[in-house]
């Protein structure tokens, strides 16, 4: 991956600065949605999930997201936002909370962007047993995968997409060539997307960054030969372990494109071969 | 499956009577949690999801659940319950709502059992395209699968479990013999559960019954050689099409048992070979 810069740490990185919260009152934080995390000009859903996740970590007695569901109500835009959190229940090992992220109309009224419900716990307190039968995704080494920032040979459509996709500068994505044919006009048709993923400035992954990671690769719809915007209706992520430092591997699959909707199932594996996150989202299929 | 009784229809069945709602005010319904849907004496999570789903269908302008997430906060018991719904957003093709199901402590105070957030739409209005690449689960015909109500040869532990599992009388479950070895003390260790599923009184499936179906089979933990209660923390179900009449096929898999938690991924297929529901839940792994 990119060389980690000496000054980049968890807490001091692009991702941390762009998810910073300003306390405004009990259960209320202000935030600034950064233009650095947009795709097609809209703010990335994983970045929004991480922002809400950070606010919930402030509100709940447990530090780590275990299961987070977001419903994306309206398209977020770069600029000011406010996050309200409510504690639903606190227990000994887990607590449950809700969050609502709003932005502001021209007349100052609030427009809700996403509604979140989440269960939090302490990943560090879990027993060490691992009986995972899933296998890490099979893909070539990082050096043999293709950077999304390298648009040489890409179709005009893909180049135009990358031009409005600021997030490409914040992430270090290297796609398995088997799932990147779409960029050259040759999608595999299988509905998969696999790649190495890191933050471009070298910040190590943590549970909040995993909320970003589950929605950071190009949509599987591209590998199905569809193009255009794939708006997420709902996304649920399970964070199962603190990730080890180093690059993540993300594999996303779509098996049920029907009736104008599709699911995207993501797995995130860390450098220690641990399945650290699983997610599923329901999205509208592009018409293209 | 069981012969459908002439008088059993959608709207007039055990499932419909046991999910009946009594309006109590704007966005408030009373319900009676039936002892008929308990497992180990606790009320089944899919039944609770269907009950909340019915209340949300009353509250929202769209009829069908598209994506429903429930966080199970405390264990529900048979008896009176109240469901409050809130409309989060209404749009042209979809609307979003929340629900809270509570029961009552001895002093009359409310204890919240589950918190739900859901997106609703109109399954009948979706385009007819189906590009599903998933395949229906491979399992023997209904007649060659094993009824959970037939406990002959079952271990004492399984027989005891069935004795406190009233839901076995409400459902017609026939398990694939490959995933029912646990009942005879010989779990496969693979973490799968597959079976035919219907309502015992012959009521045809509908979207609400699919919310029940995703959590109706025995837990995959049994096939992993674990026994005991597998409490659901969170369950998200996507309903993708109205099911055709006739028996459902349900396949559930667990691939990540680690740190004291496991996921259960369910697929529900209808008699027309359509993938009508997908779900994932995060549950605590039994210690056994």
Automatic annotation (TrEMBL), chains A, B:
Tell me the Gene3D superfamilies matching this sequence. Answer: Acyl-CoA thioesterase, double hotdog domain
Q: Which residues form the Acyl-CoA thioesterase-like C-terminal domain?
A: 160-283
Q: Which residues form the Acyl-CoA thioesterase-like N-terminal HotDog domain?
A: 35-104
Q: Which InterPro entries match?
A: ACOT8-like_C, Acyl-CoA_hotdog, HotDog_dom_sf, Sec_Metab_Biosynth-Assoc, TesB_ACOT8-like_N
Name listed for the protein in its UniProt record:
Thioesterase family protein
Source organism phylogeny: Bacteria, Bacillati, Actinomycetota, Actinomycetes, Kitasatosporales
